[in-house]
Amino acid sequence: MKKYLIILLTLLICSYTRAQSTVAKFKYEDAEKAFYNGDYQSCISLLDETEKLLGKSAPNILYLRILAESKILEVDPYTKYEQIEKLRSLCSQYLQNYDIAGLEGKYRDVYELSGKLPKAANQTQLTQLGEAEHAKQLERIIAENNLVFVEGGTFMMGEKKGTHQVSLSDFYICKYEVTVAQYHAFCDATGRSMPQEPSWGWSDIYPVVNINHHDAVDYCQWLSETKGGNWRLPTEAEWEYAARGGKHSRGYTYSGGNRRKEVAWHNGNSKVRTHFMAHPVGKRKPNELGIYDMSGNAEEWCHDWYREDYYTNSPDKNPKGPNSGSGRVVRGGNWRYSTAECKVSYRYSRIPETTEYYSDIRGFRVVFSQ
């Protein structure tokens, strides 16, 4: 009788163990799904449950845990010293125990990930490392994208009856209008088509034109995704402040001077043989901040919806325009129009979706903030 009880107990234990193993398998599969859905914290919790059911870890469990922990740290690795050290310990555990045939690829992944972890003795050192790395990244972004720093300040926006005081925070703005070459890179990377070619053809150093507002916003979003940081169209206030020269403004009528032919391509000087046309960026005199073509060449989309009376009730700090409207603000004038539109204070609007109505006059430039 005792013999049969032992056999029965053994069978029950085996059955329970198999059931535990099956549930653990399901938990691990759920952890994988959570990882590929970007829910890294849930992935880690499910791996904890898997290990508890099995009573041990395993190469695949530890590998997935390392990947999930590293994804969580990607957001801001320099603020989480304890998590960095925890991940370093997990990598060390994997490298010490799983240098075996069949796992070479995963072993290499963990080895490379471990080597990229920042090394610091404490949180203070880690924070300092982060600040230094952030400064290097910002320097690289500024150099690669011809960004100009615009120190925040207070200025009188608009002209005549519309003049009002506005205060802005710091921002960076591109020295040049977005060029054909830059926009072409965006189209190649995203699989979209270039806009309609203007009559003078495409040339890399010309401003890209025939751009509607949605095209410009999509380009900014692509920059944010590929380069990091916040890339966007300038607000109307930021655009005018930068065009006026920011804190270095000398009060010019046009961006960079009062002699329009020196600073702007417009209908008085943009003719080549028998055709008026845009010109390569950066060929006129820059303004006080070293920014080119904010008067003339291609008119530029801004972030804001347009409302004629907006100045009467706009916020005095970092205004972003009305909440809605039928047109978006366009600034700067262009190669086809007179110099009146090239004044730094002149404002008008276009329908966001339009790629018609002389859209070969319309381009944009971008702003970067951290």
UniProtKB/TrEMBL annotation:
GO terms assigned for molecular function: formylglycine-generating oxidase activity
Residue intervals of the Sulfatase-modifying factor enzyme-like domain: 145-367
Keyword Hydrolase: no
Protein name, per record: Formylglycine-generating enzyme family protein
Signal peptide stretch: 1-19
Keyword set, alphabetical order: Signal
Any single Pfam family the record assigns to this protein: FGE-sulfatase
Organism: Sphingobacterium alkalisoli
Gene3D superfamilies (UniProt xref): paralog of FGE (formylglycine-generating enzyme)
